[in-house]
């Protein structure tokens, strides 16, 4: 189903979801707390995903993919994959049916790279993330 991230915990019980896909989210690079892949949302996803569940990200924004690669492990996720599964790949010559969203179709049409990350939740406590990393997650 398609739903706003804030509503997930009103619809699903802890551990109920096998997969959560975040496809082409608005980057909000200046307001990371609003990003659907920020620690606020990751805490929700971690609770709602089953132990073997997967959190998936598809984006054409490099800095967003880099942010996820740095922040997700700090938020209790283990990154499993950074290559699109064969069934989710969409290249310029791919059939239109293979394209999942309008944003992905536009990215493919403009020959933009599509970044993908798959992670699974880890059990245990999470240590707080430094504010400097949360405020400017795309800087090195």
Low-confidence regions:
89-99
Largest sheet features: 4 strands, mixed
Name the average pLDDT: 79
Order of strands in the sheet with the most strands?
Answer: 1-2-4-3
Helix content: 25-40%
- Strand coverage percent: 15-25%
Please count the beta strands (DSSP E, at least 2 residues each). 4
Distance between the termini: 36 Å
How large is the count of helical segments?
Answer: 5
Overall geometry: globular
Structural class: alpha+beta
> What gyration radius follows from the Cα positions, in whole Å?
15 Å
Summarize the helix and strand pattern as letters.
HEHEHEHEH
Describe this structure in words.
The chain has helices spanning 8-11, 39-48, 62-74, 102-109, 131-135, and strands at residues 17-23, 49-59, 77-81, 115-121. The protein has 140 residues and is of the alpha+beta class. Strand 1, helix 2 (39-48) and strand 2 (49-59) form a beta-alpha-beta unit. Strands 1-2-4-3 form a four-stranded mixed β-sheet. The protein contains five helices and four strands.
Descriptive tags:
single chain; 140 residues; alpha+beta; four-stranded mixed β-sheet; 5 helices; 21% strand; globular
Summarize the structure.
The chain is an alpha+beta fold.
SSE order and pairing:
Elements: H1 8-11, E1 17-23, H2 39-48, E2 49-59, H3 62-74, E3 77-81, H4 102-109, E4 115-121, H5 131-135
């Amino acid at each position: 189903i398609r739903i706003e991230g804030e509503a997930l915990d009103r619809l699903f019980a802890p551990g109920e979801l096998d997969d959560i896909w975040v496809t082409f989210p608005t980057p909000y690079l200046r307001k990371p707390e609003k990003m659907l892949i920020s620690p606020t949302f990751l805490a929700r996803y971690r609770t709602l995903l089953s132990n073997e569940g997967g959190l998936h990200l598809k984006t054409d924004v490099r800095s967003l993919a880099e942010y996820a690669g740095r922040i997700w492990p700090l938020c209790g996720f283990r990154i499993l994959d950074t290559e699109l599964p064969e069934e989710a790949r969409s290249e310029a010559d791919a059939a239109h049916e293979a394209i999942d969203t309008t944003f992905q179709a536009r990215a493919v049409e403009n020959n933009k790279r599509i970044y993908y990350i798959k992670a699974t939740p880890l059990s245990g406590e999470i240590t707080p993330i430094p504010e400097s990393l949360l405020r400017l997650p795309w800087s090195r």
